[in-house]
Specification:
This protein has 227 residues and is of the alpha+beta class. The protein is 48% helix and 17% strand.
Length: 227
């Protein structure tokens, strides 16, 4: 019982000493590390959590090396942050590049696959930006921190549209609510010079039955590079 009480007091003491240190270290690392969490800063946070968690949970771990490890990690993060500012090459190595995923209302599926995002991910992020039809989007970019930046097209808002084809497959459950059927959709695709359903990466229609299509392997070469 006495040993247990000592261990509990030791854990309490470590919490009281580690948390103020973490506060100081976090302020030292800066707002960027907390607010945006680029990939390197994300790894720093995970490492800090592991070090601190082990120190608090295991009374047998020496406390001073943990404090030293936290300070070294913070200095490393700060050094890398300065190197990223000084060198674009370093920035490219330790940070994800921004990636264009929609251009002129068209999904760039090759870019989506490269960063591991799905159409559903992007549509949800667009809805969070109060955009319910990709034709409202001139350019959409997944930033280095995983957030979606959107430049809207210079036109009035469009009606809400609903996905009806996703990666070559018709979403048949959606069609009855829009008062259309599979035959109508295939006919509309043929009218748009699309003979094979497998050529369609994404298609949507609105209540006015306007069909919008993004093809597989949409050529992204016209898209300006993101610096």
């Amino acid at each position: 019982m006495e040993d247990l009480l000592k261990d509990l007091l030791l854990v309490g003491w470590r919490v009281l000493t580690i948390l103020p240190l973490l506060l100081v270290i976090t302020l030292f690392m800066g707002k960027r590390a907390v607010g945006e969490l680029p990939v390197f800063d994300f790894l720093v946070i995970i490492t800090l959590a592991s070090v601190v968690g082990a120190d608090i949970a295991d009374p047998n771990i020496n406390h001073l090396p943990t404090i030293f490890a936290i300070i070294v990690i913070a200095l490393l993060q700060k050094t890398v942050a300065h190197l990223k500012i000084a060198s674009q090459k370093v920035d490219q190595v330790v940070t994800f590049e921004a990636t264009i995923v929609i251009q002129d209302g068209i999904f760039l599926n090759q870019n989506l696959k490269k960063i591991g995002y799905t159409v559903s991910n992007i549509l949800e992020m667009l809805r969070n930006n109060e955009i319910f039809d990709i034709r409202e989007v001139e350019t959409a970019i997944i930033e280095a921190n995983g957030e979606l930046s959107v430049l809207k097209a210079k036109s009035s808002p469009l009606p809400i549209s609903f996905p009806v084809v996703l990666e070559g497959k018709i979403m048949e459950d959606v069609l009855p609510a829009l008062h259309v059927d599979k035959e109508w959709l295939i006919k509309k695709l043929h009218e748009s010079n699309i003979e094979q359903l497998e050529d369609v990466f994404f298609a949507s229609i609105n209540r006015q039955k306007d069909l919008h299509i993004s093809k597989f392997n949409q050529d992204p070469l016209f898209v300006p590079p993101i610096k």
